[in-house]
Design a protein that fits this description.
Strand content: under 5%
Number of helices: 11
Mean pLDDT: 74
Largest sheet: none
Radius of gyration: 40 Å
Structural class: mainly alpha
Order of helices and strands: HHHHHHHHHHH
Low-confidence stretches: 251-267
Distance between the termini: 125 Å
Helix content: over 70%
Length: about 270
């Protein structure tokens, strides 16, 4: 049902209503003009820096994607070179293996370069070239960007390949920081350090160090047994567990199989 027009409105009411509508329209136009002016001022003040920031952000993101892609490609290439080198090593082709490692050694990253150089140093040692091996090991040990564990291992290997030609003081200076219980290379570094003490005539220090090695359960059993024997020769009692010491030495305890207390074989 249609609404009946309101005939009670006077002309004054109609004029007032029209003026109110015109005022609302005018306010909207003013508001739109103010907003446009604000946007224009914002664009003038911040437009160029904002656009520049967006462009820089896009370029940086694109650069990151490219870098990530290059990293992936480099890792694949390094893996291929490492596989080729290891295959040649397994086949006994030491010279070819060393050449296959050249691309790794020239890498910018400390990790791949250190691994490649470590293998090349091992090849040089295998080829009875201790001077070349020591030089390569020392390059790793002196590289502050290389992983610390690899630097420590390179130091030990460098000393090992030239131990017979180094002065005891040099061996002590290089290995003493590593020959401490808890270090991953305590056993290997400690044994050479103790031998250097012996060369200096410092039997007491060598004996104590051999004893510490023999008591460290993180050290391989063969090295612990050898160190225990050396400590005993030097007059230091390094035996804490007699049964364990006998087991490591390969000697059967009394009463064990074949010992004096063993049962007679059945006929």
């Amino acid at each position: 049902m249609a609404l009946r027009p309101d005939r009670n409105k006077t002309d004054a009411d109609k004029r007032a209503q029209a003026q109110a509508a015109q005022g609302d329209a005018l306010m909207r136009e003013v508001d739109d003009a103010v907003r446009q002016d604000q946007y224009a001022n914002f664009g003038k003040r911040y437009g160029i820096p904002l656009i520049a920031a967006i462009v820089i952000g896009l370029v940086a993101f694109g650069g990151y994607l490219f870098w990530q892609h290059r990293q992936s490609v480099d890792r694949e290439h390094n893996s291929e070179q490492m596989t080729l080198a290891l295959d040649q090593l397994q086949a006994g082709n030491l010279d070819t293996a060393a050449k296959n490692l050249d691309p790794l050694v020239t890498e910018e990253g400390a990790g791949p370069a250190s691994v490649g150089r470590m293998l090349q140093a091992g090849i040089a040692a295998e080829q009875n070239d201790p001077a070349k091996a020591a030089k390569l090991f020392d390059q790793i040990a002196d590289n502050a960007d290389a992983p610390q564990a690899m630097r420590d291992l390179a130091t030990i290997r460098s000393v090992a390949v030239q131990f017979d030609t180094l002065q005891p003081g040099t061996v002590i200076a290089r290995l003493k920081p590593l020959a401490v219980p808890g270090n991953a290379f305590f056993g290997s570094a400690g044994e050479m350090l103790a031998m250097a003490y012996l060369q200096q005539g410092n039997r007491a220090e060598a004996g104590k160090l051999f004893a510490r090695i023999s008591k460290d359960k993180e050290v391989p059993d063969s090295l612990r047994s050898r160190s225990r024997q050396m400590a005993g020769v030097l007059g230091v009692d390094a035996i804490e567990d007699v049964d364990e010491a006998i087991a490591q030495s390969g000697v059967m305890a009394p009463g064990g199989p074949g010992g004096p207390g063993a049962a007679a074989p059945q006929q």
